[in-house]
Design a protein that fits this description.
single chain, Luciferase, domain 3, GMP Synthetase, Chain A, domain 3, five-stranded parallel beta sheet, 8 helices, about 25% strand
Length: about 325
């Protein structure tokens, strides 16, 4: 019998997991819920109930991959961890999968997609992929400037059309028209590409791209590189204004308690793995990366803090 866990406040929890097979009650599965997230309680529930499939957000994957508490519990019943709500770096998924001995996969969707348009069938996992298009659903990758369709492997904005697309925003026809075009395609605002096997790879939010001297720099790519550093436990990258470059990539990291690397050493680590225009120009070590309950990085908080430092209040 399958057992699964997921926070119910996520839009994917009730319709996608509790009601839908193969993980939901319709399939006879046991659903285990928690009143709030606590890592030790989460791990104990997985051990005691022999959870086989766990539906989580990226911060939990990060904990499963790196937190020492994980080694104190028996998670051997897990066959699949499915991450949603925010992008999951391929390297982080691989690290978690090796530690737990199971697949760590992603799906893709949003509230406007009720909530899923892509998922990973068992046995079709690919690192970094959010899966393939759901049945009765269509996907396009569109050049955000020319608004023309792009080919296999080319990066553009993700458009989705299908029966799960919302009717529109309540009492807001302007926002609806800006999101769903007359042909029924929902413009997700996410960037990605599709490979030859139909797998979708989400790279970043269209509005979050950093424009460095005319080059487009995806923050998520740099965050993935930062997380490869053995002493980095979490990371975020934002674009900050710069007179010469327009914007520069600025990184924020949290480190292991026993870390000895300096910010300059971590910057050099990143520089050795990316193109010159993608290099992080400044790095700060902070206590915690600000995130929403679903795991999305709250870049606005970092931008506001940086602006306050650049322009301190008078007096």
């Amino acid at each position: 019998m399958e057992r699964s866990w997921r926070p119910r406040f996520r839009p994917g929890a009730l319709p996608a997991r509790i009601l839908r097979p193969p993980a939901g009650r319709r399939a006879g599965a046991t659903i285990v819920t928690l009143p709030r997230f606590d890592l030790e309680q989460f791990l104990r529930v997985h051990q005691d109930y022999r959870i086989t499939r766990s539906f989580v957000a990226p911060p939990i994957v990060l904990a499963l991959a790196k937190h020492p508490l994980v080694d104190k519990f028996d998670l051997s019943a897990l066959t699949q961890v499915l991450s949603g709500a925010a992008p999951l770096k391929a390297d982080l998924a691989a690290d978690c999968g090796r530690r737990l001995g199971c697949e760590v996969v992603q799906g893709y969707g949003m509230t406007e997609l009720s909530p899923v348009s892509h998922c990973t069938p068992r046995g079709r996992f690919k690192p970094g992929s959010v899966g393939v298009t759901a049945p009765n659903t269509q996907t396009r990758i569109v050049d955000p400037v020319r608004e023309t369709d792009l080919g296999t492997g080319e990066e553009g904005e993700i458009y989705v059309r299908g029966p799960q697309v919302m009717k529109g925003y309540l009492n807001n026809p302007q926002a609806t028209a800006a999101t769903i075009d007359p042909d029924g395609w929902l413009h997700t605002g996410d960037l990605g590409h599709i490979d030859a096997d139909g797998h979708l790879y989400v790279t970043d939010r269209l509005k979050e791209l950093i424009k460095y001297k005319g080059f487009q720099v995806p923050p998520a790519e740099l965050e993935a590189v930062l997380l490869r550093h053995p002493e980095v436990t979490d990371a975020a990258v934002i674009g900050l204004p710069d007179e010469e470059a327009g914007e520069i990539p600025v990184g924020y990291v949290t480190l292991r308690p026993d870390a000895s690397s300096s910010p300059a050493e971590i910057v050099r680590f990143v520089a050795s793995q990316v193109a010159g225009y993608k290099q992080i120009r400044r790095l700060e070590v902070i206590d915690a990366i600000p995130k929403s309950p679903s795991g999305k990085i709250l870049r606005r908080i970092l931008r506001d803090a940086a602006a306050a430092q650049a322009d301190p209040p008078a007096g």
